[in-house]
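Incident log, entry 3
Record: F-box associated beta-propeller type 1 domain-containing protein (534 residues)
Problem: checksum mismatch between cached and fresh output.
Input:
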Amino acid sequence: MNPSINQFKVLPQSHLTCPQGTYSLTDHAGFGFDSKTNDYKVVVIKDIWLKETDERKVMHWATELFSLKSNSWREFDDADLPPPIEIWESSKVHTFVNNCCHWLGFVDEFGRKEDVVLSFDMTKEVFRTIDVPRIRESSKETSATLVPYDESTNIGVIVYPKRGIEKKFDIWVLRDYWDEGTWVKQYTIEPIEVMYKLVGFHGINQFLWTNKDEDEPNGYISSHLLNPSNEFNSDHKYWNGIMGPCNGIYFLEGNPYVMMNPSINQFKVLPQSHLTCPQGTYSLTDHAGFGFDSKTNDYKVVVIKDIWLKETDERKLMHWSAKLFSLKSNSWREFDDDDLPPPIEIWESSKVHTFVNNCCHWLGFVDEFGRKEDVVLSFDMVKEVFRKIDVPRIRKSSNETFATLVPFNESTSISVIVYPIIGIEKKVDVWVLRDYWDEGTWIKQYTIEPLEVMSKLVGFHGINQFLWTNKDEELILYDGDPQQIKHLQVKGKNNSLRVVVYMESLVSIRSTNDSNYQFVSCNFVNDHLLNTRE
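Fresh output:
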């Protein structure tokens, strides 16, 4: 991508196949520029696992190279594959130096892991290993991160302890890039307290660290998701929503669909479905729901897709196709016509995940004599059936007010929060379905007098904790009791901020042949910021 001019390019799928009887779980990419041919390239190396034993074929790789000029991938012949080396997962600073991209890895020398650098020359398209002296006592006690040194004229390795509050770190530099015998310890920085993990390096002595609150944050986790340019506002949406938690498991809505457990850093890309639209139609928009089937102990995703007529390019209003994914079976199934959602349209503006009583929910509307009347569409993850819940006339006009569906009182019922679209000071009405199974029990629970800080509701917790964004897309907590406002030091961009509660979990969602996908970005908001009663 080129963010300066808002351009994004999705690379074509490669057709790299693993050797017979093997599969891959992890890949490592390198990105750089070939100054000889004026071409941007991406090299990807994939690990190899044996299907028969589910064991890693250590230090063996499958490899492919993408060229922007040709817009295509090519596989490497066996003779051109990387030398036998393992790559450290912890070293993730992009290091492109002298037309070469680099990874920090290791080889096993008599039971000891010795650091080495793997490089790939973007011009010559060849791999090379660079030996590293014994720069640390043990990889179990220290982290080592490869970085570009002195404006990318050379490479350096920064070594620092994994544990402890005060950490001293050493900077090793390869003085002559082409002579691996010229490694020197350039300097040492005495213990400092602020650092946790190295995420960037610039020049010869500018470090970018993340720190860590020793108290594990049981607050909110927010995803900053890419907002692609117009050419991607189709099937290539990337991740435009996050749902959860269901027992600590989350779902990313977009392309591809992904389940994840951030507590143990697991990501599962859902297999593609083969749901086809009825003959003579196509689909532009889908709405997903994520939840847990407590009866079968299964995580499920339901997706409903709108229907457009090919002949006239008109929307077939209130008609849907639908599919359901089961994590247990790792497969999708289509719904029969009799089991499809009732005729209803879904509001695009209501995007807070609402999973209550084994059901996921969407706020929608039906057309009653030219007026849009709010309704709730629910899907029961256990019974696998849709249900429509009528909503009383809770607002005068959908043109003047937003309505957002939220879980109320720790997910025991549902609520609709209504607030004006326009204006500086906004009054907020909170409507609650007191008895979830009786749609006649809607009441206006309370009203909040005009607030200035809010622009859009992005989250709700308990019975009176609201998470808003303001006009600058800053995340703000409003606590209805004792009516306090806090700025949570998190900011979105281009309407990309999504918020969910964080829950720890040890549940594994991965199978051995799943691919690896990385989460784009997340921020934790600690308890002391959320606790307005201090």
